[in-house]
Amino acid sequence: MSIRRQSTVGSLQDEREVHRMEKLLGKFKDKTPPALVNLFKLLAPFIKAFCVVLNVVGPYIIKLYSALFAIYKRLPKNVVAMLLGLAFTFFGGLFAVTFAAIEAFRELGGSDVYTALEDLKIDFDIVQTANKKDDEVDDNKNGIKDVKEIPSHQLVSRKLLLVLRSVDPDRVNHAMAGLYKGFTGVLVVLRFRFARVIALAVSIADHMRPLASRILAPPLAFLIPKEYHKWISTMINVLCRTVATTIAWKIQRVLSTIQSAIKGGLMFARALVRFLHENRIISFDDESTYLDEILGWALAAGGIYVQIHMNWNLPLLVDLFLWPLHVSERVLIWSVTWMDASPSEKGM
């Protein structure tokens, strides 16, 4: 098998990479490394279950959020401002970093990210179509679909190979690069915006590290085989960072709840007054009345009370609907807090 392809860049390094990859492919073309086989066998049931759930739920989630985004783009400007205001008012403490990331994304301009997402959707649709065809294949003509009678680890390998055959590597690579660029740009903005809570988390972790080492290192050294002792320091570091992140962001959650509720309440009230004025329902605008201020501050107080009273927990159905925001919030909090840690932070 040759992996040579035409390229506008023909450097010596590229040629060496081609030769190196051809040599590796020639070495393993007739066999699979045993370690990977064992790993696939171990993870196969979990990957299979995840793929089944993703295959069933994924398209509906994408359609739902695509429909919501299409509605969002068609809504009047003031209606969008009202909806965002309500979101900030009643969910600002729970998704503080995610909302801040959305604002940063809008400030930075997200054209590259939108293009990347559209490219990934093209490949996702191609894979989904190919997967439906693959699910109907019955090569041995016994009336049972192949995907239902092969072992789980073979099914995982089959689906992974199907994905690799279906997608465009260059398009996926450029799309992932665009997403990474947008993600890192947003993280830089967020690090400035949440500098105080980041400093608090780092300080807590630094002061926890010596005590945690004295308490945890001896029992871990006794329980863990000697050849894995090099991981003890990393385990303690991760534990300290996790505890520090939780404490610092719990404090920040209260501050973000108050700040976002005030911002969201006033945003909603002013947009509502402008909307009513533009539609000639009222004769005054938001510049000539205190009604928006009164309504905004009252709504802010309600938002603060509701979030604190519910202890930032949502009803189950709402929680299930907003699970992507929960995932986004956790990932952003960890990334913002520990992104590009200095050498002293890494060693703690």
Architecture overview:
With 348 residues, the protein is an all-alpha fold. It folds into 2 domains: 75-96 and 194-348, no CATH class; 109-193. The chain is built from 13 helices and no strands. It is globular, with a radius of gyration of 26 Å. Residues 1-10 and 341-348 have low confidence and may be disordered. The chain crosses the membrane at residues 46-72, 79-102. Keywords: Membrane, Transmembrane, Transmembrane helix.
Write a compact overview of the structure shown.
With 348 residues, the chain is mostly helical.
Largest sheet: none
Give the SSE order as H and E letters. Answer: HHHHHHHHHHHHH
Count the beta strands.
0
What's the overall geometry? globular
Strand content of the residues, in percent? under 5%
Mean pLDDT: 78
Helical run tally: 13
Terminus-to-terminus distance: 48 Å
The chain-level structural class is: mainly alpha
Number of domains: 2
What share of residues is helical?
A: over 70%
Features:
single chain; 348 residues; mainly alpha; 2 domains; 13 helices; globular; membrane; transmembrane
Element layout with pairings:
Elements: H1 12-28, H2 34-74, H3 77-91, H4 96-108, H5 111-135, H6 152-166, H7 169-193, H8 195-223, H9 232-278, H10 291-309, H11 316-321, H12 323-338, H13 343-347
